[in-house]
Specification:
The chain is α/β, with parallel strands linked by helices and 410 residues long. The chain has one domain (20-33, 94-392): TIM Barrel (Alpha-Beta Barrel), CATH 3.20.20.140. It has helices at residues 3-6, 37-40, 100-110, 128-147, 164-177, 199-205, 220-229, 250-256, 263-270, 273-276, 292-310, 318-324, 334-338, 364-371, 377-392, and strands spanning 24-29, 51-55, 58-63, 66-71, 87-88, 114-118, 153-158, 181-183, 233-236, 282-285, 326-330, 348-350. The strands form two sheets. It has an eight-stranded parallel sheet, with helices on both faces. The chain has a four-stranded antiparallel sheet with strand order 2-3-4-5, with no helix packed on it. β2 and β3 form a beta hairpin. The protein is globular, with a radius of gyration of 21 Å. It starts with a helix and ends in an 18-residue tail after the last helix.
């Protein structure tokens, strides 16, 4: 009997007791079946959309002459850890990844009141035009998904950085659809590095060794537009490529993906971006947070020692910008919670990562209890709700007891 027959991935899961009364999940995901592309791509590209074939224990995505099995690492919610597998059928995925009401049901079971939704795309294509169009297609699908959530889910649009004016246009379109943030590659993209094989990771990582950097004046209009639109910017991992299909390298890649997220904001800090745009908000999503206080102390010390010969004339020590401009999310990081009063520790947000392989679903409140032992209620509720509502601008936040009128941390 096939595994899909023995594990009912979409079985009913009983709700567990809540630890906190109000939770805003700062990072969840959607996993739409690839058949959605034929509806959301621009008409001239729809006949090129991926299609799905089934054979044995796998569904295969057929696209541009390639045939690859459906990746399940993006959708392990509902499985016990010893049931994880890398590839399989669409029926092996929990349907809350693309059905709004089923997602709301899972949020209710898991004690999640609101959620920030990260999707992605793009298509792994060798056509630059189709590649760019696929960003827009995925973003529109995701906005429609969130629009059916009764005000409980809020989308983050993924944008390219091959052309700053296109990025700004994408940001304006995202705001018009009701999205609450935009996600950029960790480093600017380079057209010279565009390939079919690397196109998907280019969307997450960009080109770390390219000639363009976010500190450059080229990107100042983008930061200005973000401030004018009150639109936060996020980097969702991506500073280091994880070989998620490689059993040998997956684990070291995953752990190194967290502290690697220091490089993009460090480039922006030392490059004076936050001096030029003090109201710009930047989020490091799924980065973990325990390493940030260490980084702030080290960056302050080395900047104080090395700023003269390097000509780094920023107005404040680097930790100032972490406390003023930079936010970060974690899934389970009790060390980071313990260090919340250190420089760099104030703007931290909890997330479940549903339905990815690190998700806390369906035991999120169990994870919350483990991460927040001994933490005063007001401080816990800031991390579980207030900080995310402030960063993503979710309107008049429901402020848990002890939070300031503007959602400021106690």
């Amino acid at each position: 009997m096939a595994e899909a027959d023995t594990i009912d991935i979409n079985r009913e899961i009983a709700a567990e007791p809540r630890v906190a009364d109000y939770v805003v999940d700062a990072d969840v995901h959607v996993t739409p079946p690839p058949t959605f592309w034929a509806e959301y791509l621009s008409p001239r590209f729809r006949e090129l959309a991926p299609r799905v074939e089934s054979e044995g224990e796998y569904d295969f995505i057929m696209f541009e002459g390639t045939r690859r099995p459906v990746n399940l690492m993006q959708s392990q919610a509902g499985r016990a850890f010893d049931q994880y597998k890398n590839a399989g059928k669409l029926s092996d995925m929990r349907v809350g990844g693309w059905m709004p009401q089923r997602r709301l049901d899972d949020m209710d079971r898991d004690g999640i009141d609101k959620a920030i939704v990260f999707g992605g795309g793009p298509l792994s294509t060798g056509s630059l035009e189709l590649y760019l169009d696929s960003f827009d297609a995925f973003n529109r699908w995701q906005s429609d998904f969130c629009a059916d959530s009764n005000g409980r889910m809020f989308g983050v649009a993924f944008l390219t950085t091959v052309d700053v004016e296109q990025t700004i246009a994408g940001m304006r379109a995202a705001r018009a659809r009701g999205d609450v943030a935009v996600n950029l590659p960790a480093f600017p993209q380079s057209l010279s590095q565009f390939t079919k094989e690397g196109s998907v990771w280019q969307a997450m990582t960009g080109d770390p060794d390219g000639t363009r950097q976010y500190r450059d004046p080229e990107f100042d209009p983008l930061w200005a537009a973000a401030v004018d639109l009150d639109m936060p910017i996020t980097f969702h991992l991506g500073a280091r490529v994880s070989r998620y299909k490689d059993k040998t390298n997956f684990l070291p890649d995953v752990v190194m993906g967290k502290p690697a997220m220091l490089e993009p904001p460090a480039i922006m800090i030392y490059g004076g971006v936050f001096d030029r745009f003090p109201r710009l908000r930047l989020g490091l999503i799924e980065s973990g947070v325990g390493w940030i206080p260490w980084a702030c102390e080290y960056m302050d010390r080395t900047w104080h020692m090395q700023r003269h010969w390097t000509g780094c004339a920023i107005k404040h020590p680097p930790s100032h910008y972490f406390d003023q401009n930079i936010y970060a999310s974690f899934i389970s990081d009790p060390v980071g919670v313990e260090l919340r009063h250190k420089p760099g520790g104030r703007n931290i947000m909890w997330s479940s990562d549903y339905p990815h392989s690190e998700t806390t679903f369906p035991h999120s409140h169990r994870a919350i209890a483990e991460n927040f032992r001994g933490v005063p209620t007001a401080e816990r509720d800031w991390i579980l709700a207030g900080c995310a509502e402030k960063f993503f601008g979710l309107g008049q936040a429901r402020l848990p007891g002890g939070l300031g009128r503007n959602g400021d941390r106690p």
